[in-house]
From TrEMBL, chain A:
It is a multi-pass membrane protein. InterPro entries: ABC/ECF_trnsptr_transmembrane. Keywords: Membrane, Transmembrane, Transmembrane helix. Its main location: membrane. Coiled coil: none annotated. It is found in: Membrane. The chain crosses the membrane at residues 20-40, 47-65, 85-105, 200-219. This is Cobalt transport protein. Pfam families: CbiQ. It comes from Secundilactobacillus kimchicus JCM 15530. One of its GO terms (cellular component) is plasma membrane.
Amino acid sequence: MNPTLKFVLAVLIALEISFTSSWTVNVILAVIGLVIILAARPGWKRLLSLIFWPLIPAVALAVAILMQSRSTGNTQFAIVLFTRIYAYVFIGSAATLTTPIYELVMSLEQNAHVPTKFAYGFLGGFNLMPKIVTEVKTIRVAALMRGETLHFWSPQLYFKAIIAALRWSENLAEAMTSHGFVEDAPRTHRVTVRIRSRDWIIAIGSLILLQGLLFGLHLA
Amino acid sequence: MSKTNAWHLRDIILLTLIAIFFGVIYWVIGPLYNLLTVALTPVGLGPAANDILMGVWVMAGPLAGYVFRKVGAATLGEFLGAVVEMFFGGQWGASTMISGVVQGLGSELGFALTGYKRYDWTSLGLSVVTTTIVTFGWDLFRNGYAAYHIGLLVALFVIRLASTFIFAGVLTRAITNLLDRTHLLSRRSA
């Protein structure tokens, strides 16, 4: 499926189930998401963490409703909140696990017409991700060597990371410009990403089906 | 930084890098959130963990707003941070992107109210208040806060306001003070 449409669909679904309270729809969505995730064949560790970690907020929200709500007997709503978390996570992971970030950015540029400077600037920055993770470790170790521990509430940690980011962004932007990247200039594409009619049918069909389910179950 | 509202390649890369850095931080404090939630759940206060840590999750917005001084910077910074967190495999899935936009718009509102002219405690303070109100409004629906009794709602709101004030206010101010002292941001606009 076209990456842009896939993510738009995932967000629309998440938005809609945030404002509706049907646990059956949540379960159906979670199952569909899980099937897509399983088809992408993630590792066991990834799969187990996808199932386990959402359990914590899901249980917390459900227990809080049971213990703290204004009216008693809100079991129904507790189940809705519990299943909603799983619908969010499985639908979201169904989108992220099946889409390399490169394909998403290319699709956003060509199909959603995001300006090229944003598409390639974001991609350039995103490719520095491993360097950022290393930099954060370096900053903390360097501080430890002076006997200082930097926590996530230490301004120094953020300050030093931003200084490094300032330097890298200048360098990377210069490198891209010297490789011929011109902001706002029209580009040709080696790989073209299209939205096929099948993509539209899946996206619009899913949304119509979701409305049908939500409305149908509401009436029932 | 620059007084113009145009985004250039290096701004976009810098914004992405800052967002990724915060994405990493969001992801790193995930276990802390889980620990707090597990500890508070038996007394039915699990969701409070969300409010206690809210300030950390909304820091990218005001910081980006302050560094770039452009319309949309806070929203974009917070949104990209959320996207990065989601690709890391954060435990909120697709709703992370919505939360990112909601949090970003919340902090953006603070800067917008001053017409993007003031970059001091006034705009930052306003941003803290608008972020708290907007994100709390979203949680009334998303996390079902609307069903809680009024005492808990007030308590959660106060906790969230305090957390946002400490992290998105005081800590962000401390970081931007350090940045201002380097004059790197003003040199960049030249």
